[in-house]
Amino acid sequence: MSRLKYSRLVIPRKARDDGVLGLVALYGPLGFVEEGRDLVACFRDADAARRASQALSASRVRFDLVTDLAEGDPLEVFRAASRPFAVGQRFWIDPGNPSDSRPPSGRIALRLPASTAFGTGGHESTRLVLLSLADEPPSGFQVLDVGTGLGASRAFGFDTDADAVFTARENLARHPFGARVTLHAGSIEAVAGVFPLVVANLLPEEFLPMRAAVMRRVAPGGRLILSGLPLAREERLRERLTSRRWQLSSRRTEGEWACLGLERASS
Ligand SMILES: C[S@@+](CC[C@H](N)C(=O)[O-])C[C@H]1O[C@@H](n2cnc3c(N)ncnc32)[C@H](O)[C@@H]1O
Questions:
Q1: Which residue has the CA at smallest separation from atom 25 of ligand 1?
Q2: Is residue 104, in this structure, part of any structural domain at all?
Q3: 163 in ligand 1 pocket by Cβ < 6 Å?
Q4: Are both 147 and 245 inside the same structural domain?
Q5: What integer pLDDT is reported at residue 1 of this predicted model?
Q6: Residue finishing a domain among 73, 89, 111
Q7: Ligand 1 centre from 81 Cα, in Å?
Q8: Rounded CA gap, 94 and 174, in Å?
Q9: Are 201 and 126 in contact (CB under 8 A)?
Q10: Once rounded to an integer, what is the mean pLDDT over residues 17-44?
């Protein structure tokens, strides 16, 4: 995964007056921090940082500029401090740094080191998907995961966010079932065939534009698990999505989120 870069413009404290701050602010820094006796301006754009430093030179203000620093991983501290947790009766999620910690017996370990592309694996909408899968395990058949990250007899996952796909690949490599999952970065148009189970944990804004394409991928008699629905909008969405051919088979809620199971008629 590519790391974002930033630049640091360090200005000794004695030079810190409102004029200097105002001057540097003209070049669009991300923000200012005080470090001991220094004032530090951080920039995303290295050229902007260089222009700011030229302006400081012209004003005879001393500074120190370092560009192209790799941004620290904001979830590093979270991973170090996190502990595994259970989801329902079946799953055990470890959002910490990769380790060979053992799950309690009878539970399936999902090792998902917290990342910006994947979150911590503990979001209600993800939990609702796992609880739905635990109730009706997809054993022995193929699963399509829209906006990715799962485990079945054979699973296909895709995501339009390439970073999410890279992270999912790394996560799969930590699991014995990883080799049974195929991932691609792209949209649903590249997915062929139909599946007995399709899982989509997406916001309505993401799901609705591809609703027809996703529902076409559910085999007759198959099931769609749709999570990521804000509770306040769920009733309206449920009305839109159910029909004579699409019956509601399950409904779960947790916090502000809902997850629906929809069954496609067999003919
Ligand atoms: C809420 S996350 C779900 C992640 C994981 N499946 C889970 O349940 O925790 C939704 C994912 O859907 C992806 N996504 C959004 N729109 C998409 C689209 N049109 N096609 C494929 N993936 C999409 C996002 O990039 C994001 O990674």
A1: 161
A2: no
A3: no
A4: yes
A5: 46
A6: 73
A7: 26
A8: 11
A9: yes
A10: 83
Tokens 């199971």 — which residue? Answer: 261
- For 80-116, the pLDDT digits (tens) are 777 888 999 989 988 888 887 788 999 988 888 877 6
Encoded amino acid at 130, one letter? L
State how many domains the chain has: 2
pLDDT for position 13: 74
Going from the Cα of 202 to the center of ligand 1, the distance in angstroms, rounded, reads 6
DSSP at 79: H
Distance in Å, CA 88 to ligand 1 centroid: 22
pLDDT given for residue 83 in this prediction: 84
User: Residue 122: pLDDT band by 50, 70, 90 thresholds?
Assistant: confident
| Structural domain includes residue 65 | yes
For residue 187 and ligand 1, the question of a CB distance below 6 A is answered with: yes
Residue whose CA is at the smallest distance from ligand 1 atom 11: 147
96 located within any domain: no
Say if residue 257's pLDDT is above 70.
yes
Q: Which of 45, 47, 16 is nearest to 32 (CA)?
A: 16
Q: pLDDT digit string (tens) for 176-217?
A: 888 888 888 888 988 889 999 999 999 999 999 999 999 999
The CATH number given to whatever domain includes residue 39 is 3.30.70.260
Residue 219 domain boundaries: 123-264
- φ and ψ of 84, to 5 deg: -65, 155
Residue 147 CB less than 6 A away from ligand 1: yes
Structure tokens at 187: 């949209």
- CATH number at 244 reads 3.40.50.150
Q: State the DSSP code for 187.
A: -
| Ligand 1 atom closest to residue 203's alpha carbon, by position in its atom list | 1
